[in-house]
Amino acid sequence: MLYSKIEGEGKPFLIIHGFLGMSDNWKTLGQQFAGEGFQVHMIDMRNHGRSFQSDEFNYELMVQDVFAYCQEHALESVNILGHSMGGKIAMLFATRYPEMVEKLIVADIGPKYYAPHHQTILAGLNAVDFSVKPSRADVEATLGQYITDFGTRQFLLKNLYWKEPGQLAFRFNLAVFNEKVGEIGVALPSELVFEKPTLFIRGGSSNYILDEDVESIAVHFPSMKLETIPNAGHWLHAENPALFYQMVISFLK
């Protein structure tokens, strides 16, 4: 069963993190959404956060994980939000189980194929040698040789935890990601359609959703609308949480 943090009471609202993320990334926004009368489920996907680890890793399996989670928690009708990889999961879940989804929100990802582009991040993560019992500062210094962006490094460092006294480790399953990273970019199957209200939110400085993608997105999601957060990159919900929150709540209400 997937690990989750649940906040509030009301209409079930699932939030699914991106690749190398976890439910903790959504803690502040999740609490805000809960304050608006939603029961917010911030979920750790397989091989991420505190959820189980598995050698199998693809979108169809992760959608089945979310379906099993909904059954376990008796969630028959939900709103669902996903960022990046989580957006791909949310899109596939909504098209596979449209009767379970009232509204869909996708943050800075489209249904198209994305070529692998996490090589530098994975190289940095693989360069960390936990056998020498590095400190948190040591891990950050190693990552800094590969990843120049401070925000990205801090995002990755949230995955550090004390496996035992004096021994740090990453929560995610790096070995499986090394092998299966190509699965992250897989396109939504061409025949799948979700006809209910769908909101895509992109970062104005991000290249994940281009103007020319809108037509093909609308083939899958005919009731879609697109909003843009100016001067925000791929981590739009962290870079401008106030505007992101306002866009989501306006759509859900």
Automatic annotation (TrEMBL):
Keywords of this entry: Hydrolase
Keyword flag Hydrolase? yes
Q: SUPFAM superfamilies annotated for this entry?
A: alpha/beta-Hydrolases
Q: Which residues form the AB hydrolase-1 domain?
A: 11-119
**One Pfam family linked to the record:** Abhydrolase_1
GO molecular function annotation: hydrolase activity
What PANTHER family does the entry give?
A: PROTEIN ABHD11 (PTHR46118)
**What name appears for this protein in its UniProt entry?**
Alpha/beta fold hydrolase
